Each structure stands twice: as C-alpha cells, then as structure tokens.
Amino acid sequence: MHAANHILLVAGIILAAGALSGIVARRFKVPDVVLFLLAGILLGPEMAGVLDIRAASTFNQVILVFGSCYILFDGGASLKLSVLKEVWVTILAISTVGVLITAAITGFAAVHLLGIPLMTALLLGASISSTDPATLVPIFKEVRIRERVAQTVVSESAFNDSMSAIITFALLGVVLGTGGSFSLGRVAGDLLANALIGVVAGAALGYLAVLLIAHERFGFLLEYTPLVTLMAVVAAYLSAETLNASGFMAVFVFGIMLGNKRSFGFRLEPEEQERLADFVSTTALIMRMFIFILLGSQVSFPLMGRYLGRGILLVLVFIFIARPITVFVCALPDRRAKWSLRELLFMCWTRETGVIPGALAGILLGMKVPGAEVIASVTFLAILLTILIQATTTRWLAGKLGLLEEL
Predict the structure, then answer these.
(1) What is the per-residue burial (b if ≥16 Cβ within 10 Å, else e) of 170-179?
(2) Is the residue at 269 inside a domain?
(3) Which of 172, 247, 348, 357 could hold 241 in an S-S bridge, CB 3.0 to 4.6 Å?
(4) Count of CB atoms within 10 A of residue 276's CB?
C-alpha cells in the first residue's frame, strides 16, 4: 500500500506540474515539452527533491515505453500517405545512412574532445544519433510547418530509433567482447528485418483495428474506438518486440493506417472522429507530461559536471556539423522531393534528442559498460541543449525561412 500510495502521489504531482507548465507554455508560445523538462529538473532530487523516480524502476520504464508508443502513434495518425509518397527516399536515406553518418562524425569528434577509446566514442555517437518523436510530434502540432517538411522530420524520428538501437547494441557487443567485430552488413541485415517485421505488424493490427471500428458491417467496436486504439498500440508494440523487431515502428505504422483509413475505404462519422481526436490528443498530452517531467527529474548535475565543457563542445559538433552533413548528404540527392535550401536548413536544425537516447544511456549505465558514465553525461547534455535551444526556436526559424503555414 505504501508503494501504491507513493505512485499515486507522484502521478498527482506530475499532473499538477504538467498542467501549470502547459499554461505557462501556451502563454509564452513555447513548446510544452520544454516547460515539462524544466519542471522535472526543478522537482527532481538535485533541486526540490519532490520527485525521485529512478530510471531503472518499473514505473519509469512503463511510462517511457507506453508514452513513447502513444505519442508515436499520434504522430503516425497525423501523416498523409500522399505526402509520404513524395519524400520516402529522403526518409529512408536519412533514417539509415544518416544515422551512420551522425554516429561516425560524433564518435570521431568524441575521441579528440573527450579522450576516450574509439569504440566507446562510436558507442556514444550511436546512442545519441536518433531524433525524438516524443518531442517533435507535439512541436509540429503546435507550430504549423510546411506539410512535407514536418512529416519528413516526424517520419525520420520514428524510423531512425531502430537504426540507432541496432548500431548501439552491435557496438556494445564489440565493446564487451561478446559480439565479434562490427559488421556493417550485419547491421544492414538486422535493420531490414527489424523494419519489415515492424511495418507488417503495425499494418496488420492497424487494418484490423480500422476494420473493427469503421467497417459498415464488422465495425461492432465503434462505440469503443478510443479503447481499441489503446489496446492496438500495446499489441502492435509487444507483437513486434516479441519478434525482435521495432515496436516503435509498428505503432507508428499503426497510426498511419488509422489516420489514412479513408484511403482503405473506411470512414467514421464526424462526431465519432472528433471524439477519437479529443481522446488521442488528451492522452498524448498526459504522456508528454509524464515522460519529460520524469526525464527532467533524472538529470544528474554531478554526472554532467564531470564532462561539462568538453561535453558541450561535442554537442555543438553534433548539432552544427554532424546534422547538417547528414541532411545534405541524404536529402540533396533526392530529385523526386526537390528540396529547397530553406527546407534543408530547417531540417538541419530540427533534430531534438530525447527519450530513446536517454533510455539507451540508462541501459549502458545499468550494465556498467566501460565509458557508460561519459556516454550518459553527454547524452543528458544533448537532451537538455537540443530541447531547450532547438525546440524553443523552431517557430522563429520556420518564420525566418518562410515555412510557416497559416491555420
């Protein structure tokens, strides 16, 4: 009972802090995830000491996994197949080759800036190389960016998590001496299998969910549409993970299926569609509160302080060198998309780091991997700097580049 009461108290504190942060964020027109992160830091054990939820706790892991899944589902549901058909080459390239480029540049920079072994440095580069859908999805809900740019960045954030995790664990095997030598071919094969299984699992469950809620004859679960989305998100994630595939990719594809149900011959009545949209947006908001307030509360100032100066320099290399090279190498050759310089510059800047890199850093710390402390230190710095600097300037930069769309 004591543990249950403690969890209820923590949940109440997070909801109260999240509601207040959301009001302030709306007042000053900044992404709410920024205020949630700051609220978590203020309430965490390093400052007020009100929240003290360990990263390895079951409660924290459930929130991270389900919250990320639901936010990713919400992002997938907002995408349009017609737009994805135009930019799929860029998404594929930047989510695969792009992650390798980012990890390599960041890793080699870490060798010189931090003085750590090459394999540890590459492990650091791989673990922070993915972008964060939990941050980007809500930002693009609040800031209306040119559609194909926003959907490319959000799709990249969904797909590159798998690549980052695969490279991280392949390198981890080398560092621990259990995985032989690093093989690019093996990584490519794992990624292909990971992606295909995730896509198939998400598409199958997505079609089944749409069939049961929006089919004229078989839609007997129409009244329980919000409940179906919750069950299907969990089922898509677990089914893919059970098959050693990407659960995040599965829930993202499930969201795409539900969001594009008209393309498959299904539709909901306007009032049912509005009820579902309200439920999804409210649930996604609650998940954002929990994820980023908990993430902020787990920031370790002593850990970051050990490598503060050199870590900041590395994050600047990560933002201003690795990301622009990645974007231009992967997107510029895509003749079908015909990206403009302004669109490419915006994509260079929009690459917030968040939940998945934080989770990977936590795993490495828990396994006591050599160099895990420096990896965790730089990861937290990357999360803080990219969310506090890049997320808050998204609207301003989009306006300067002429990419804002009128509501």
Answers:
(1) bbbebbeeee
(2) yes
(3) 247
(4) 18
Pair 224, 158 in one domain = yes
Q: Position 94: which residue type? A: I
Give pTM, 2 decimals.
0.81
- Dump pLDDT digits (tens) for 66-124: 887 888 788 788 777 877 788 889 988 998 889 999 999 999 999 999 989 988 899 99
Residue 376 pLDDT level (bands cut at 50, 70, 90): confident
Is 99 in the same domain as 154? yes
The total of structural domains in the chain comes to 2
Residues 268 and 198 in one domain: yes
Matching residue, tokens 């991280």: 168
107 and 216: one domain?
A: yes
Rounded Cα distance between 141 and 18, Å, is: 18
223: containing domain: 66-400
Question: DSSP class of residue 145?
Answer: B
Sequence-distant (6+) residues with CB within 8 A of 209 are 228, 229, 232, 254, 257, 258
- Answer yes or no: do 92 and 38 share one domain: no
Distance CA 229, CA 294 (A): 24
**217 — pLDDT class (breaks 50, 70, 90):** low
Planar angle of CA 354, 340, 324, nearest 5 degrees? 40
Q: Tell me how far apart the alpha carbons of residues 350 and 326 are, in angstroms, rounded to a whole number.
A: 12
